[in-house]
Amino acid sequence: MRASEQPPKRIPSGDRAAAKRRAIVRAATDAFLRDGYGVGMDTIAAEAGVAKVTVYNHFGSKEALFTAIVGDLLDAALAESTRLVEERLGSSTDVRADLVAICEAWVAGHATPEVLALHNAVMGSMPRLPELGRTWQEQGPERFHLIVRAALASLVERGELAIDDIELAAIQLSGLVLMPHIAYGSAGSAPDADLTQRLITGGVDMFLARYRPGVTTSGWTATRRTVGPPPAPHLGGKAGGGRADR
């Protein structure tokens, strides 16, 4: 590590320092999303309106700055869904309605162009900087899953749900409602508003169909569409398309 990239002995503090830190993070976020991890610290400093040494005084290295950006964006992405889980799910009187509201906030926080672009930037940097992927995982999915698992365990204790494997159930819920938006949105083909709502409500209904008390895996029955092929998903392009009835 170059001497200029050594961690600072004293991190700047005070209102003025906090304002400079916010300016650096904002400029660095824009630069990283625009140019990727290869963007120079000179560019970031210039766009933030500060000296290059000021950037290093606050963050020590480009890696530390990128890690801070990941943390800040994921904090914002998870803020509302985390609040809803903590306030409503553990003591829910309408599990379906509360799960739908939580998943709506969960998807809304992650489906922004900024978060999706950051996701792509992190994934693209992992061969060189695998620790960035770990940071994303720890500050995003793992952190939120811990909160969801605690709430699901509370619902199990109250008899609202029957879940043997809480960890598996939390991952399944994420897979049903969030991952389609990450997968398609990261490729520039985000589901439109109608499909987003159907993915959320349909995913919650599938989750509850599996984990309501009295349901067993061997007792499941599958329904199958028998008339015509399934409709094409409405990804990207013009919004407003619903199911294509045939």
Please describe what this structure looks like.
The termini are far apart. Helix 4 packs antiparallel against helix 5, helix 4 runs parallel beside helix 7 (130-157) and helix 8 (166-177) runs antiparallel to helix 10 (193-211). The chain folds into two domains: 11-59, Orthogonal Bundle (Arc Repressor Mutant, subunit A); 62-216, Tetracycline Repressor, domain 2 (Orthogonal Bundle), CATH 1.10.357.10. It has 246 residues and is an all-alpha fold. The protein has ten helices and no strands. It is elongated. 30% of the residues are buried.
Describe the structure using short key phrases.
single chain; 246 residues; mainly alpha; Arc Repressor Mutant, subunit A; Tetracycline Repressor, domain 2
Short description:
The chain has helices spanning 15-35, 41-48, 52-59, 62-89, 95-110, 113-125, 130-157, 166-177, 179-186, 193-211. With 246 residues, the chain is mainly alpha-helical.
SS element count, helices: 10
* Domains (count): 2
Question: CATH topology of the largest domain, what is it called?
Answer: Tetracycline Repressor, domain 2
Coarse structural class? mainly alpha
Kindly state the mean pLDDT as a whole number? 83
Order of helices and strands: HHHHHHHHHH
How many strands?
0
Q: Which CATH C-level class of the largest domain is it?
A: Mainly Alpha
Rg is 22 Å
Alpha-carbon distance between the two ends: 63 Å
The CATH fourth-level homologous superfamily of the largest domain: Tetracycline Repressor, domain 2
Overall geometric form: elongated
Largest sheet: none
Low-confidence blocks of residues: 218-230, 237-246
What is the helix content?
55-70%
What share of residues are in beta strands?
Answer: under 5%
